[in-house]
Amino acid sequence: MLSEDRLFPSDAKVRSRARDLYNSVKDLPIISPHGHTDPKWFAQNNAFANPAELFVTPDHYVFRMLHSQGIPLEALGVPRADGGAVEQNPRKIWRQFADNYFLFRGTPSRIWIDHALQFTFGVTERLSSKTADTIYDQISDQLSQDAFLPRALFDTFNIEAIATTESAIDDLRWHQMIRDSGWEGNVITAYRPDAVIDPHFEGFADNVAKMGEMSGEDTTTWSGYLTAHRNRRAFFKSNGATSTDHGHPTARTEDLPQQTAAALFEKALHGKCNAEEADCFRGHMLTEMARMSIDDGLVMQLHPGSFRNHSSDIFAQFGRDKGYDIPTRTDYVTALHPLLNAVGERSDLTIIMFTLDETAFARELAPLAGVYPALRLGPPWWFHDSFEGMMRFRETATETAGFYNTVGFNDDTRAFCSIPARHDVARRVDCSFLANLVETGRLNGDEAAELAHDLAYRLAKEAYRL
Amino acid sequence: MLSEDRLFPSDAKVRSRARDLYNSVKDLPIISPHGHTDPKWFAQNNAFANPAELFVTPDHYVFRMLHSQGIPLEALGVPRADGGAVEQNPRKIWRQFADNYFLFRGTPSRIWIDHALQFTFGVTERLSSKTADTIYDQISDQLSQDAFLPRALFDTFNIEAIATTESAIDDLRWHQMIRDSGWEGNVITAYRPDAVIDPHFEGFADNVAKMGEMSGEDTTTWSGYLTAHRNRRAFFKSNGATSTDHGHPTARTEDLPQQTAAALFEKALHGKCNAEEADCFRGHMLTEMARMSIDDGLVMQLHPGSFRNHSSDIFAQFGRDKGYDIPTRTDYVTALHPLLNAVGERSDLTIIMFTLDETAFARELAPLAGVYPALRLGPPWWFHDSFEGMMRFRETATETAGFYNTVGFNDDTRAFCSIPARHDVARRVDCSFLANLVETGRLNGDEAAELAHDLAYRLAKEAYRL
Amino acid sequence: MLSEDRLFPSDAKVRSRARDLYNSVKDLPIISPHGHTDPKWFAQNNAFANPAELFVTPDHYVFRMLHSQGIPLEALGVPRADGGAVEQNPRKIWRQFADNYFLFRGTPSRIWIDHALQFTFGVTERLSSKTADTIYDQISDQLSQDAFLPRALFDTFNIEAIATTESAIDDLRWHQMIRDSGWEGNVITAYRPDAVIDPHFEGFADNVAKMGEMSGEDTTTWSGYLTAHRNRRAFFKSNGATSTDHGHPTARTEDLPQQTAAALFEKALHGKCNAEEADCFRGHMLTEMARMSIDDGLVMQLHPGSFRNHSSDIFAQFGRDKGYDIPTRTDYVTALHPLLNAVGERSDLTIIMFTLDETAFARELAPLAGVYPALRLGPPWWFHDSFEGMMRFRETATETAGFYNTVGFNDDTRAFCSIPARHDVARRVDCSFLANLVETGRLNGDEAAELAHDLAYRLAKEAYRL
C-alpha cells in the first residue's frame, strides 16, 4: 500500500539524496522519550483484545474525525462517563471506521494506520467497507499470537527506550512490576505533577494530601509540599524517570518571593484561588520545578496552550481526552521571562518547550532557544506531528535555533502501533529537509549524514539523558 | 497569454499528474454558493457599459493597488460620496489601468484579469500602455453584442448556481424579477442581517423598524424581533436562499439568557449600547441565528475579522468598500465557545467559518472543524483567495480537518468576469495539491481523482444544500 | 566551498531560469540604505585587528548561537559592562568559534560567513577545529594588507551607497571626517531619535537637553523640542541622510492634540511618565516625525516589536545588543491607525514598515501597504533576513501588496564582511521566487527580468531617495 519513497521530495535528485539519508537511519533503534503508552501493557503482557480496541476506541485522532462528520462517540464504543450504553461489538465499530476511512485522506492518521496495517499486520489492501471484515479477521487472529503481545511488539518495533507519563501521585506499580519481571525492555516513567500543582485540577487538595501520605511529608505547609515534590521526583527517578512534564493552559511562569508563593499555596489548599491566582501559582511552580531539576537532573518539559474539553456536553458525557482539546494562541516571550531570568542561563539544566502555536517558532521560540543555554525546542506536537507540521517546524526554527537546540523526535502517543510509523515519518521528513538543504547549497553531504543520525537518534538520547 | 500549465507544480511528474486531474474537472459546472454579484444584471440583462465599468471602477482589488501607488480614486472614476467630480471618461480610466498594469505582477488580480481578457474577450496581447486602446475597443465592441449580455455570460461561464447576498431588509425585487422572467439561470439570494443585528450599523433602529414593517411583526419587542427574523428568512428561502451570512468585526459569540438578550436589544433600539454591549449583542444573535438555522435549514456563514474603513478620510469621501478593509488577528477558540456549546454538536446544522487570519487554520479552525459535527471550514477568503493563500489553506488545514470538513470553493466576488478565472485557479491549486500528495505517497491516484471532483463541485453543492 | 547554484530551486528548469535572472543582476552595485556599520571605519580607514574582531566578537548572531550551547560570553571576548576579565586572545576566541562552527548548520550565518571566507579572503576549506589555525593565519595576514582596509573593501564589495544609523545627538564627526577626506565612497547617516523620543530611554532628559544645546533651541518647551528635531534632521540631511529610523517596543502610533502632547512631554522631561504615557508619547512622536518628513523629505523607517534585553543578568553584565532581543507578536492594524489617518494618504511621504512578526505580512501589512499611498514594506528583518524568511516574505506579501510596494533589500548589519553575502542571498532568493512565478505561469519572462533588476537595485534606490 505504502510507497517506498513516500514523503520524499518529488524532484529526482533531491529524492535520491533523501532516500540515501533515510536508508542510513531507518533501522536505528527508536528512542521514545515522551509519550502516553500504558505501562500495564508491558507489565502484564496480555494480548490486545481486538482491532477496534487497538485502532479506534483509544485514538482521539481517529474518533474525533469520525465524530466531526456526525458519528456519535457511542457508536465508536467510546465509554460514557455515566456508564451508559455504547457500542460493544468491536466488529461493528471497526466497520464504522472502515466505511469512513476515506475521511482520513491527507491526514497523518492515514499514514500511521496504513503503516501499522502493512508493516505490523501484513495487510495488503486498503481499508474500506469492502475489506473491513477480512482485515478485521486477519488482525484478530494475529493479536492472539505470541508475536503480537506487547513485549514482542516492543522488540519488533526496535524500541531502545520508551517513557510513559504518570501523575505525581501514581504508585508506579506497573513500572515496578516491569522491573520485577526480569524483562529487559527499557520502559521508564516521567513525573507529571499537574494534579498537585494546578489549584483548579479536580481534587487538588486531596491530591496534595495523598502526595503527603505517599512521601511521608506534611504537605499542609509550603516547605513540606516542596519537600514532598522532591521525594516523589526521587521515587520517579528510581523508576527510570529522566524528565518531568507540565501541561498548563498557558506558558506563564512566575518567580515569586517564597512568602507570596506560600500564601498562594495556602489559598490553593483551601480552594480559594481565583483564576488569576491559580495561573500565578502554576506559573511559579514551574520555576520551583526548574530549581529542583537543577538539583536532581530531571529534564523539564513544558506543554502549554491547550484549551481542554472545549465541549461541555462531551466533557460531561465522556470525560477528558475526547478530541475536544483545542490549541490556543500562546505567548512565550513575556510568559517565560520570569523562569528564564531565574534559571535560563544554567547550562546544567534542560527545559524543553513545546507549542501548539506554530507562529511562535520563528518569532519567539527559535530566538529564545537560540540564546538561552537552558532552553531547547521540542518537536512538533499533537496536531502538528505531521508531514507539513514537521516541515514547517524545520523551516521556521532552524535558521535561528539551528539543529542543536532541538531534541529529536517525540511520538507522544497512546496508540502503541503508531510508534514505528511516527518515527518513520519524522525520519523521512528530516531526511527530506536535509536533502533539500544539500541540493540547494546550504549544507554539505557529510554534514547532512551526521545530522540525519543526530535527528533520528542522538539528540533525543542526549537531551533526555537516556 | 496564459500558459496551459499555469499554477501546476514545476516537477514534470507532479505537473503531469496535476494536469490529468485538472482535465477531469475543468469543465464541471460552476457552483458559486457565496458572492456579491448584482442580481439586477440578471434581472434586466442590460449590456455592461464599458471596459472600465467592468474591470476597474467596481473592483476594489484593482483600484486599491492603483491607489497605493498614488493614483487618486477620483482619477479611476470611483464615485465620491458627495457627488463631487470624478473622471467620467472610461477610456481615460482604462488607460490609467493599462499604464499601471505592471503593478499587478504576482497578484491574483493579474491572473483573473488575464483570464477574462483571454477567454471571455479573446484578447491575445498583454495589457499595457501600448495595447490599452486596442483592447478597450475590442471589449467595447463585444459588450454590445448579445453573447456578452449578463445572462449569456452566465451560460458561457457554465454557472450551475450562483448566490448573491442581500440585506435582511432588501425587497429582493431583482430576484423576483429573475424568477418572473422565465429565464432558467439559477440565481439565488442569501440572508445577510448585519444591518438589523449590529447595534452600531448605520440606521440600526430604522432598519429594525423596516424589518418589522416588511414582516408584519412588532419589532419593538425582543420576541417580535426574533419572529421578524424568522419571517424574513422564510421570505429569503422562497427566493432560493439556502444560507445566511454574517460579517462581524470579531468571531465573538454569546449564548445569553433570553432576558439579558432582550434587555440588550432594548438598549440597542434606543442607541444606548456601548462598544462592549454591541459586540455582546452581535455575538448572541449568532447563536439565535444558528438556532433558527436548525429549524429552517439555512446554512450559516461567518465572515469575521475585518477592520472596516480603516481610512476615515477615504470613508468620508468615498464611503464603504473602497479597499480600506484590513484583516485583523482573530481568536476563534474562545470566541466560538458559546455558539459551539449551544449548537456545535448538531449534525443537522452547518456553520461555515471563514477567516482573514490564516494563522488560525492549523492552530484553531482545523482542530475545531475536525471535531464539531456542525462546523465546516470555508475556503480562503478575500486577500487569501489566491494561489499561495489556497495552497497554505490546504497545507495547514487538511492534516487536522481532512478534506471533508471543507466546503469547496467560494468566489465571493462582485467582479462577474472574474468568476470563471477564480474557479479555474481553485481547481488548478487543488489538483496541484492532490497531485503532490499522490507523488509523495500520501494519497492514491483513485482517491485524488475522486477528491478533485469533490473539491471542484460536490462539496460546495452539498454543504450549501444546492 | 559554496555551490554556484546555491539557493536556487532544485527543479532543473526553474533552476536554470533562476540562474539566468541572477546572472543579470549579480554584478549590480550594492545599495545598502539601512544598516549599522561604523562610520569610523571609513573615516579612519584603519585595518581590522584580527579575525575574531571581524567575525565573532561584534556579531550577535554568532555569539548568541555559541552561548545557547553553554559557552560563556566571556570566553568569546564579549566585553563586560563592569570591565571584568574576558578572553583577550583572539586566536583562542577563533578556535572556540571554529570548534563549534557545526552549530551554524542550516542558519544564514553559515552562508554569510562561508561567503566572506571564500570570496573576500579566498579560504578554500570549511572552518572546523582542524582548519581553525590555518584560516586564522590566512585572514590575519590579509587584514594588514591595503586591499583589506575598510575603504578598499568598500570598493571590492561594489557598494554604491551605504547608510549608517546615528543617534539624534551624535555629532556625526566620522561622517564629517569622511566628507572632509575627499574619499568618494558614499557613506551617509540616518536620523535615529529614540534616545530623545522615548521617555524611558536611559538619560532621556539629559539627551533632550543635549539636543537643545546642539541645535540652539530651548528644548524645555514642546515647540522648542519640535524645532530642535527639525534642526537636527536638517543637520543629518546635510550629512547625507535621506531617512529616519525608529525602534519602538510596539507599532503604536498616536495623533494627539498638541496640548496633550505638550503635557506628556513635560511629564517625560521630569521622568514622570508611566509605561502607558511613555508608550503614548512615543506613539505620538511618530506622527510628528511623519509630518516633518513631509516637509524635509526624509523617508521614515519603523522597526517595532523587539523585547529588548530579555535576560536581566546578561544585560547587567554585558549591556545592550547581546543577542537577547526577542521578537514579539505585533499588531499593526490598530496601532498604525492614528498615523495612517494623519498622513497615510500622502503620496509625497514614504513610511517603510518592518516587522519581526511574519504573521502580519499576509494579514495586516500587505493589505495596508497595498492601499495607503504613503506605506511601503521593508524587507525581512533580523532573524527573518534568511533564505526561508525572504521566501516567506515574498510568498505572503506579494499577492496583496505586489512588488512595487516593497523597497528592495536592507542588510541592516554591523558585520561589514557579511554585506556582499547578504545582498547575494537576497538576489538569489528573489530570482528563485521570480523564476518560480514564470515557470508556474504567473509572470512572463521579460517581466521577471525587469523585476529582478528592480528588486536588486532600483526599488531601494528610489524608495530611499538615493
Characterization of this structure:
- The structure is a homotrimer of 466-residue chains.
- The model of chain A has no long low-confidence stretch (mean pLDDT 97).
- In chain A, strand 10, helix 17 (359-369) and strand 11 (375-377) form a beta-alpha-beta unit.
- The first copy, chain A, folds into 2 domains: 12-48 and 149-463, Metal-dependent hydrolases (TIM Barrel), CATH 3.20.20.140; 49-148, Orthogonal Bundle (uronate isomerase, domain 2, chain A), CATH 1.10.2020.10.
- The two termini of chain A are 35 Å apart.
- The first copy, chain A, is α/β, with parallel strands linked by helices.
- In chain A, the strands form 4 sheets. In chain A, strands 6-7-10-11 form a 4-stranded parallel β-sheet, covered by helices on one side.
- The first copy, chain A, has helices at residues 12-25, 39-44, 51-55, 60-68, 90-99, 108-120, 132-143, 150-156, 173-181, 194-197, 204-215, 222-238, 258-269, 275-296, 312-318, 337-343, 359-369, 387-401, 419-439, 445-463, and strands spanning 30-32, 159-163, 166-167, 187-188, 191-192, 243-246, 299-302, 306-307, 326-327, 351-353, 375-377.
- Chain A is globular.
- The interface between A and B is large, with 47 and 46 residues.
